[in-house]
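Researcher: I'm preparing a figure for a lab meeting and need a structural model of a single chain. I don't have an experimental structure, so a prediction will have to do for now. The sequence is pasted below. Please return the structure as C-alpha cells so I can convert it later.
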Amino acid sequence: MSYKFLTLQESRFSMKKFVILLFALQLLSGKTIPGIYRHDRAESQYIALGAQPQFDCVGVFLNNDIPHGSCVLIGDRYVLSASHCFLELAYKQQTPIPAEYFVVFKGVKYSVKKITIPQPYIDSPMTGHCDLVLMELETPVTNVVPATTCKTFDELHADVTGIGFGVSGPADKPGLVTLQGKKIGGENVIDTLFGFVRNNLPTMMYCDFDHPTNKACNKIGSSTPRDLEYVCGGGDSGGGLFRKTATGWELVGICATLISNPEELNATGYYGMVMGWTRVSAFADWIDANMK
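Model: Understood. Here is the structure written out cell by cell.
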C-alpha cells in the first residue's frame, strides 16, 4: 500500500569542528525537500529492506484518512510517533483524540484513543525538544509483533536501519524525488548524540548521508557510507530507527527532523544532509510510566 504525505519538519544544518548549530525549525505542508537512497543502488533494494517482517511494526498515522507521518507499534495498544505530526494538539497532554485519527499496520486501520506528549514539547513546540508522542489505541493490534524499545545508552556509532513511508528517489537527482509513500528501509550510523538533555542524557541522535565517492559531503563521523546508506524524508516523521542486537532487533529512535542546506542541495543533491532521531532510551522511563 502506498500513501501520499503532507507534512515534513525541516531545519538547517552546519558543522564546524564537530559542533552542530541548529537553526529555526519549521513545519511545512504540501512540500517535500529531502531524498532517500544512494544513486548507485536500486530502489528495490531499499523497498526489500523495509518489507522485512521485523519492521512490520512500522505503520502510518492518519488524520482524517490523510497520511501525516509514520509510527511504530511498541505494545499491542501503544504506538510511538513524532509530536510535530500532532502540532495542533501539542498544548493538550493526555487529551481525547478526534475520531478521525488512526494508525495503519499491515493494511488494518486502528482508532487512536489518546495521545501523551512530553512536557518540554508542549511548553515550546517550535524548539523541537522531545519530539515524541505516545498513542493509545482503542483496540489492540493482533497481527503485528511490537518493537522492543532500547533501554541502554550505548547507541553511539551503532549500525542502524531506518524505516518509514516517506518520499523516495535517487540522492543525486532531486527532481526525481517524489511523494510515493512507499515503505522504504535504509542504513546509516549514529554519528553523534546532541540536543536537549533529559536525565543527563542527550535526547537526539544524528546521522549524515555519506556520498559513495565524494568524501567532502561528510559532516560527522566516518565518511564511508553503508551499502544501503540513506537519509529520511517527508512522510518518514515518526518512523523507527532500529539496530540489531544479540537478542534481536530493537527500536532506538523516532524520526524527528531533516537538517539541510539549500546550497548543498544544488551542489551535491541530498548527500551531506543530516537526519535527527529522538532517542528512545532517553525516554524509557516516560514511555513505561505512560503505558498501562
